[in-house]
Each structure stands twice: as structure tokens, then as C-alpha cells.
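2024-03-11 09:14:02 DEBUG pipeline.ingest accepted 1 chain
2024-03-11 09:14:02 DEBUG pipeline.ingest length=318
2024-03-11 09:14:03 DEBUG pipeline.predict start
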Amino acid sequence: MASAGRQIEGWPRRSALIAAVAAVALLPAGAGQANFLTDIFKGPSKASKPPRHATAPKRAAPARAAAAPKQRAARHAAPAKPVATTCAPATFRIALDVGHTATSEGAISARHVAEYVFNLHLARRIEQRLKADGFAATRLLITEGKARASLVRRVATANRMPADLLLSIHHDSVPDKFLEEWEFEGKKSRFSDRFSGYSVFVSPSNPHFKTSLSFAELLAREMKAQGLDYARQYSQPVMGRYRHPLLNKDTGVYSYDELIVLRKTRMAAVLLEAGSIINRDEELKMGSDERRDITSAAVAAAVTAFCGVRAAASDPPK
């Protein structure tokens, strides 16, 4: 109430004080008028009462001077929080990209199982979990064909959908130089127990990089909250050309700008390496319903949080 701090002309001092008390009583708590009564009590003495027209400016000035530091302090002490939209799961469109194809299978696990098989099983479990949580517009993106051609097709399909978010599902391996040989069910195979863990990748070239990174952070934190560890080798010099910048050393979010499915899609896009299938112990976990449920729960929690704040994290279109 800007007028509450003005002296009313023509009233005796006693009446003015009563009116001031009544006015302050009507103010809402924390209204910033704490100096109003102080101004009244600090009025001129009875011996030398100045004219009424000279008193109002003198009384209004201290109130303004006192309010300004408080306003400045409030701005520094309590920064404004981002405004979040209300999440509408039924209309939030998610594309679950099944990494690789039946023709181009990706990595081969320590026990002769194609990565594509792991990707498809996990993506279906995630789809079920998201739909159970109300995200009815979730769609599996399954592509056919050889590697390069299938990458181009999957990006084109994703861009036509369109989607609010693309999550590409993969399972990890290691560079050939780390592989060792062993025999499984009478057949020679290769493995590496040296590395394990999940990892999350984003591309700085994605037109919605900031939004992609926002979801990647949410997903990585949820994976960690489920008791999982991330794959740390991608930040190490030993990885050579497979080394990538680590954007968050606490949760395992990496930058990877050469992945077409992240770089060329026109929506926020994140790639999840759910774990290493070339690691013999972790491969067994990756094939279990328990681990798929854990990963699905992490994805669903991250999607729910992301749906609620996506407007605050969105980048302007390029």
C-alpha cells in the first residue's frame, strides 16, 4: 500500500497516530512497512511544529531509504526459482531408440549375445514402466538395415514423430586392445572384466543441448541413486580416440559429439549405455529382470522430473 505512509493533512497529531496504527494493522505480514510507525513517533516536537506541507516529504523519505536496502538484500538472499510447467504425462512424447539393428547387432557379449538383443529387452521394459506411470505417448523406435543407413533412417523417423525427448538405449563394450579370450559353452569368445558401469552421453551439437544435458543429469543421478556406478574409463588417457570429456565427475555424464542419433535429432536427445556386456559379471546382471527393473525405475523417475521442468530448461530454437 503506497499511500499508507503519507501523513493525512488537517488531523491533530493524536488522531494521526490512531489512524497510522489502524493502517499498519491492516497491512499483510512482511509488507515492508516496518518504518511507518517509527516515522510517526519521530515526528517534530510540540515546541517547533513545522507546517503540514513540510512534514510529508520528510516522513516518506526514511521509509523509502530503509526499504531499498531490504529489497536489495532480499534479491541477493533469495534468487528466483525457475518456473516449472505442470507435467502432463499423457501428452509427453518419448522416443525410445533401440540401439543398432537385427542386421547390424552392435557389440557381442562375453557369452555370444548381440548387443541389439540386450537393447531391445531393456527398451521394452522401460516402455512398460513409462506407460504404467502414465506416459502413454512413449514409442519404441526400432530400425532395420545396416549400420550407417539405419542411423540415417532412425534420425529421420525420430524427427518426423515428433518427440519431446529421445532416449537411445545401448549396452557397452571396450576397445579391442582390452579384450581377452576365454571359452564359453565350448566356443571361444572374448571378454574384458577391466571396466564396468553405466554412462550417459550428450552432444553439444544437438540444437537443444541445454535441455539434453538437463535430462542427462537427471538420468545419471537416478542411476546413481539406484546404487549403480558409472563407467569411468572414458575420461582416461588409456582410451585413446574413445576418450570423451566428462561433464559431471559425480554422476557420469559425458560429451560425445560424433553420435548421429544425438547430433542430428531435432529434440532433446540422450544416449544411455546401461552397462558393460563384455564384462562377464556385469553381463549376467544386464540380462536379469532385476537389473532391467532397476534401470527402468531410474529412467521413469528421471522422465517424470524432466517433464515437470522442461520449459525452464528449454533452449530457444536455432
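2024-03-11 09:14:41 DEBUG pipeline.report Strands lie at 94-98, 139-141, 165-172, 180-184, 187-191, 199-202, 246-248, 253-255, 268-276.
2024-03-11 09:14:41 DEBUG pipeline.predict end
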